């Protein structure tokens, strides 16, 4: 009897352990193809697809927490979420308190204009005007121009809203990453498509996770490295964008 009860207790404990979720942070300022958020939950996109695959491969259910960018740091520090992806270590003040994956993504930030905008623009040469930006996002290349008052931030809640406001004529230029710009243009005719007029920044981005004994940290890091090396992550990116991630740095620059 004791053996049976012990076996049942061991089985129930292992089942409960298997159901402990891997909690991912999702930024509410992201847009497709990174993520689509409906009723406060991600429904599709590059990042939830990668996160779901990661959780499945490490044997944990994925749990998504949609947060404002301003809340992300505190959520990680307070243990509300376990993993945050699409991040540069330079963006995180307490970066040494976490475990970091190998570089997984390549991001190109662009200054974007409408079809009537010049093919190439020097941000420093722009006259005093507003520029479309995402709330709480930092733009190191443009920050000196914001500080001097030459340019003024016009914040929107998401990347998609920045591009929609640009197309509607709210300002002459906005900032977008390459993925979001490509996705936005897919839904518009050629005469209404936006285009990059200057490359502001290019960088590789990672995932990072909390140092917590309840999280299988090394298994998560090893799995992310395997997903990158096998081409799985790049295949997901290409599925949504049509771009081969490994060649992004050398192609399509304005």
Short overview:
With 254 residues, the protein is of the alpha/beta class. β2 (36-38) and β3 form a beta hairpin. Residues 1-17 and 246-254 have low confidence and may be disordered.
Report what the structure shows.
By secondary structure, the chain is of the alpha/beta class. It folds into two domains: 2-106 and 204-245, 3-Layer(aba) Sandwich (D-Maltodextrin-Binding Protein, domain 2); 107-202, Periplasmic binding protein-like II (D-Maltodextrin-Binding Protein, domain 2, 3-Layer(aba) Sandwich). The chain has eight helices and eleven strands. The protein has helices at residues 2-18, 46-57, 69-77, 143-148, 159-167, 178-186, 217-229, 232-241; strands at 22-27, 36-38, 41-44, 62-67, 83-87, 98-100, 105-113, 129-134, 151-156, 173-177, 195-210. The strands form two sheets. Strands 1, 4, 5, 6, 7, 8, 9, 10 and 11 form a nine-stranded mixed beta sheet that branches. Strands 2-3 form a two-stranded antiparallel ribbon. β2 and β3 form a beta hairpin. The chain is globular. Residues 1-17 and 246-254 have low confidence and may be disordered.
Helix-strand blueprint:
Elements: H1 2-18, E1 22-27, E2 36-38, E3 41-44, H2 46-57, E4 62-67, H3 69-77, E5 83-87, E6 98-100, E7 105-113, E8 129-134, H4 143-148, E9 151-156, H5 159-167, E10 173-177, H6 178-186, E11 195-210, H7 217-229, H8 232-241
Parallel strand pairs: 1-4, 1-5, 8-9, 8-10
Antiparallel strand pairs: 2-3, 5-11, 6-11, 7-10, 7-11
Number of extended strands? 11
**How would you state the average pLDDT, rounded?**
89
Enumerate the spans where pLDDT stays under 50 for 5 or more consecutive residues: 1-17, 246-254
- Summarize the biggest pleated sheet: 9 strands, mixed
CATH class of the largest domain: Alpha Beta
β-sheet strand percentage: 25-35%
Number of discrete domains: 2
- Give the helix/strand class: alpha/beta
- Please, what is the oligomeric state? single chain
Which percent range fits the helix content?
Answer: 25-40%
For the termini, the CA-CA separation is 74 Å
CA-based gyration radius = 21 Å
Report the total helices. 8
CATH topology of the largest domain, what is it called?
D-Maltodextrin-Binding Protein, domain 2
| The CATH homologous superfamily of the largest domain | Periplasmic binding protein-like II
Q: Order of helices and strands, N to C?
A: HEEEHEHEEEEHEHEHEHH
CATH architecture of the largest domain: 3-Layer(aba) Sandwich
